[in-house]
């Protein structure tokens, strides 16, 4: 523990008798002083003893330090001597090594020619055996030494090929047996390789393949390997899956057998494509090529897709430098004859299929398509008939049929969607936008022109004249269905056509064609909006049939029990139905535009209708109630202008009941102040008491 002087003195005082207050003892300072003096002397003696011991240890340490330094110097000198010896030894070793290398070079220079001479002597010996026609050497008679025999035969064969024919004839007068022996040994090696492959002996296969590598029959060895690999590999119905599994298995094995595995695997894949797949594709397509276009196109799309998927799987393997081009050429070699005229088959099928779908629909409706004019005299006659009510020919009675079918549309769009998918997959990238545009044109012809446009024309021709009684306005149903169908058409345009043409000049052509179709349909829809005349005509019939003169000039002024007239109830009910029908048939700004036009005409009809009657005081109150009900009906339009018109009409009706003295005040009110005075006067004239001098005087 650290030494603390205060604590040490305290403990010393505590141990001294009389040095503290323990048990009531009296404090004795003299005794404590004496103890302190004695203890100080003891400490001084101890200090002197320790100091002497420290000095002795210091002297001993200095002596040992000098001895250690001397010893280190001696070791350094020994180390320098050892280092010098090491350098000398290293130089000597280097000298010896140089001599050894020089001697080795000399020995190799002597041994290499000697080895060559020995090898040449052996070859000459074997050559003589062939000349004698008797192969006595063990290497030729022992079947286990086929590898050594193959090496000898290969060398002799090369030598024989390099020697001139005249030189060979100097040695013998008959042809040498090298070619036959070469061929026999080659066949023997291939048989050995075949047997090893069947037994699954990878090591033996690798040995034989390495020997055959220098023979002409090496390619035949590869062919045999490829042929045997495919034995039993294509037993299932899915040839593409079998091919993928086979290539996966061979890819693991071929690197262990051949020195050029990528070349062997590429040759296997080429064989599969040119033999197995091409034969399978031909069988599947030729069966339906001329008899069933639909099945032919489905099979072509399916086979091409599965082939490209197989190609994608094979891209994982090492097939050389440009495997993408290699596989693309293989696919093209299989399908080139089918893809050249694909789009013509596609367009022909789509045309016949679409025509059949439409014809089947019209046949189900027992309807024979008519040739309805779309312009010129026919259009002029239709417009004149609708706007003037002149009988320029009877309208076509569609019996409530819109001649639009969701099922037909879905079938046409589904066929076109499949055609777009096939086009994307089977078309050459350079022809893709052009082919997609042709398919789109077919869709426009059959869906937009032959179906939607025909239904609009038929609906226009079926619009009754405004003076028809109990006319059914089916054209709004046509508008509703056409609107829904065109949304589906637009969705397919964006989802399936746009990705195929988005980066080509055909994009602008398609957009323009779509714009022209929309404008053409909008023109016909605008023409059909003249059904508003029919609605107004129906309201006129209701008012004429239900409104009585006594409604606004009752015989008993004090006994009027109704809140509004029966004509008002029926007209409002009819209008609400038509407003709901218009909202369901259209969308966007078209709804507001049509409802505004209908609301303005509805207001004009009620205004003119009220001008036909004279009003008593109670009749005027009833007219105000009718107009209030009409105004409630006008709120359903949700058009500010229409509601404002009926608010003004309601204010005008107040002139029918207001007291004569208040006429000028009412006419100067907020809603009537800006109206022409003649309009106000015309309403005041409808009062039965107008001719009284007092009323005429106040109004003037």
Automatic annotation (TrEMBL):
Residues 148-699 form the Exocyst complex component Sec10-like alpha-helical bundle domain. One of its GO terms (biological process) is exocytosis. It comes from the Eukaryota. GO terms for cellular component: exocyst. Pfam families: Sec10_HB, Sec10_N. Keywords: Coiled coil, Exocytosis, Transport. Residues 40-78 form a coiled coil. Residues 29-137 form the Exocyst complex component Sec10 N-terminal domain. Belongs to the SEC10 family. This is Exocyst complex component 5. It comes from Trogon melanurus (Black-tailed trogon).
